[in-house]
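Incident log, structure service

09:12 report received: a user says their structure output differs between two submissions of the same chain.
09:20 pulled the input from the user's history:
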Amino acid sequence: MSGAGQGRLRSPASEPPPTGPAAIDPEPDAEEVARAILLRLLTGAPRSRAQLAEALATRDVPEAVATRLLDRFTDVGLIDDAAYAEMLVRTRHAERGLSRRALAVELRRRGVDDATAAEALEQVGDDAEVEAARRLVERKLASTRGLDAATRQRRTLAALGRRGYAPGLVARLVRETLGREGEPDDAEVVGVGWDDRSDE
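09:34 re-ran on a clean worker, output below:
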């Protein structure tokens, strides 16, 4: 090979350059990496402390570093499980009509402790839960007009069951709504397993 050809040869990619910042190539600081991860996650959407801890663990952030940063973010109010739980309960109940039972399951799944969840769930009183269920029943029955009564009942029961409403409450609201439509008030409400997917 000619001298000119040899002059064009470059050092293997595994060898650092002899000068410049890349020559030092320091390992990224674990705390800085973890801080960047937390800020990025919290900018995207509110999250519980447990969710953030899990995210750091999956990115191999050392546990001691993660705990220190999570404590610091909690102290300055960037992590607030109580506020997070209240927000989730308020929005999920208003937008999706979830019952307190379904909301409690979702809070637990997101790592919110039971005491904090219980306080947040106090936002949804008995009357509010019944009214939310009634709206869902009316909407579901309205969308199934033209089908036979048994199918309408089954789909309505299944839809509300997946939102955590008690079968007895749903059955009563179904009877009331069908009664206003002219169906007999004492019409039998058929039973159904809550995993029925026929309304989707």
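09:41 both user submissions now match this output. Likely a transient worker issue. Closing.
09:42 reviewer note: The longest helix spans residues 126-143. Residues 76 and 101 are 32 Å apart (CA to CA).
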